Amino acid sequence: MPILHWLTRETDLQTSLSVPYRLLEPVAELSAGEPSENMLIQGDNLEALKALLPFYAGKVKCIYIDPPYNTRSAFEHYDDNLEHTKWLELIYPRLELLRDLLAEDGSIWVSIDDNEAHYLKVVMDEIFGRSSFIASNVWQKRYSRENREAIGDVHEYIFVYAKSPETFKKMRNLVPLTEAQAKIYKNPNQDPLGRWRAIPMTAQGWRPNQMYEVITPTGIVHRPPEGRCWSMVESEYKKLLASGRVYFGKDGNAQPSIIRYLSEVDGFVPWTWWSFDEVGHTDEAKKEILALFSGGELFGTPKPERLLNRILHIATNTGDLVLDSFLGSGTTSAVAHKMGRRYIGIEMGEHCITHCAPRLKKVVEGEQGGISEAVNWQGGGGFRFYRLGAPVFDEHGKINPAIRFAHLASHIWFSETRTALDKPAKSPLLGIFNGVAYYLLYNGILGDKRPDGGNVLTNPVLRHLPPFDGPKVIYGESSRLGTERLKTEGITFKQTPYDIKAR
Fold first, then answer.
1. How many CB atoms lie within 10 A of CB 376?
2. In whole angstroms, what is the distance from residue 458 CA to residue 440 CA?
3. First to last CA, the chain
4. Tens place of pLDDT for every residue, the chain, 503 residues?
5. How far apart, in whole angstroms, are the C-alpha atoms of residue 188 and residue 199?
6. E strand residue ranges, 216-263
7. How many CB atoms lie within 10 A of CB 303?
8. Residue 501 lies in a domain
9. Same domain, 252 and 185
10. Do residues 37 and 145 both lie within one domain?
11. How many whole angstroms separate alpha carbon 320 and alpha carbon 169?
């Protein structure tokens, strides 16, 4: 497969590996609402994504990002004027970490314009796999013409990749009909089942068991038109006829059509053309921000809530986890909250405090802008604000004394399995993976409250560990058991922090 080369490529391919794991420190005064899993993180998104890996690897159902477009124009809240190599240096390691966070049935959606779109496509093919590509959606972002351009720029792209395209195809949701699309469904005969339309009962081709005669109520005999056959076998047709689901036109003489009720239509298969009248435009997005922050600073490039609503409707269901690591003005998290999805939003700038947190607080309080009325949003829920803290390990590999057992346990589990723990660890037995049990002895987990109590593997400690009849990996400060005893017990002992390879 062709790959993209740039000046610092070899260094950039190693960037995500060298980023330290950091603690996430909650900030109560910037949080809002009820206790919640929803997270708003302020900090460099590369470091924040790395900090999330031990807890969320393989758990995110939908990722949406709107990274800088490299448009050579400075915005108020971040500098988008990045030289091409610098842009690739920024995007490559972040996409690598996002891939690791994506669930097996998850999808990633990336907004971009023509400045970097074609390069981004090649990079995403390399990171996610060419076969994981789903679509390049075209969003019509503008509705007005401007004569100052050689050719008017009225669209952006939204690239979609999925870990498993077949799974995505099965689980993705259909796009609901708008009233404009549904206007072809009428009810001229006051059918108690509601509005309906007539669908011609023919199909392309010739099938012997679908070439029968159809007789109308007025006695006219119809056969399939040349080059076509009926769309069903005769026995199925007779069932529909008996149930009143066959229509022969106003005069009862026409070729048969099948009655399809509006109530039976789940929606449309999503298209790659997304018009502004269906999903919003840039002016709509700016008005939404102005309504939320009247008189304040306007974020440079917001996306309309209807656009994110379309993405999350297709890709997720209630309770699924959504991640946006270029959160901007907070639209993704706001829409996810209103739609009943869990979410993680990451933003580096001060507007994480000045825009994102206040916006989400207003959502919790029930603000009625954007999609609120469409989804019947009345308020509720909550989110927790976090800042990036100190590294989990210092430059000498020593464990940060602020780290708690559950946090270190997640790092060890991730270092061994490359997966995230399903639940926070509350026992020395972290779990069993591929037939191997993993244990951690750290700061009193066995009930000894002394700082180093229970961190050393001894005979008494071994007797108190939850039993497992199979191979075991035990992390601890040191081991007092001899090599033969460890072998007899099926134990591989690893010393913390030196044998933790997830740094």
1. 8
2. 13
3. 31
4. 778 888 889 998 999 888 989 999 999 999 999 999 999 999 999 999 999 999 999 999 999 999 987 765 544 555 655 678 888 999 999 999 999 999 999 999 999 999 899 999 999 999 999 999 999 999 999 988 877 778 888 999 999 999 999 999 999 999 988 888 889 999 998 999 999 999 999 999 999 999 999 999 999 999 999 999 999 999 999 999 999 999 999 999 999 999 999 999 888 899 999 999 999 999 999 999 888 887 555 666 789 999 999 999 999 999 999 999 999 999 999 999 999 999 999 999 888 999 999 999 999 999 999 999 999 999 999 999 999 988 888 777 778 878 888 888 998 999 899 899 888 888 899 999 999 999 999 876 655 544 455 688 999 889 889 999 999 999 998 899 999 999 999 999 998 877 676 44
5. 16
6. 221-222, 228-230, 246-247, 257-261
7. 27
8. no
9. yes
10. yes
11. 17
Structure-token match 């001899």, residue found: 482
Of 49, 23, 166, which is closest to residue 102 (Cα–Cα)?
Answer: 49
278 lies in the same domain as 346: yes
Do 348 and 465 belong to one domain? no
Task: Tell me the residue length of the chain.
Answer: 503
Q: How far apart are CA 109 and CA 269, in angstroms?
A: 17
Pair (303, 159) in one structural domain: yes
Q: Residue 411, Cβ neighbours under 10 Å: how many?
A: 24
Residue 126: helix, strand or coil by DSSP? helix
Q: What gap in Å lies between CA 275 and CA 457, rounded to an integer? A: 64
Q: Is residue 49 part of a domain?
A: yes
Distance CA 400, CA 63 (A): 30
- In terms of pTM, does the model score above 0.70? yes
Q: How far apart are CA 478 and CA 481, in angstroms?
A: 9
Q: Compute CA distances 152 → 6, 27, 155, 351, 500, whole Å.
A: 30, 45, 9, 31, 54
**184 and 166 in a common domain:** no
DSSP designation for 210? G
CA proximity to 363, closest of 397, 391, 393, 329: 329
Among the candidates 233, 264, 295, a domain finishes at 264
Q: Is 440 left (phi over 0), alpha (psi -120 to 50) or beta?
A: beta
φ and ψ at residue 108, rounded to 5 degrees = -120, 135
Please answer whether residues 238 and 225 qualify as being in contact, where contact means their C-beta atoms are separated by less than 8 angstroms. Answer: no
Expressed as residue numbers, the domain containing 234 is 179-264
Same domain, 76 and 114: yes
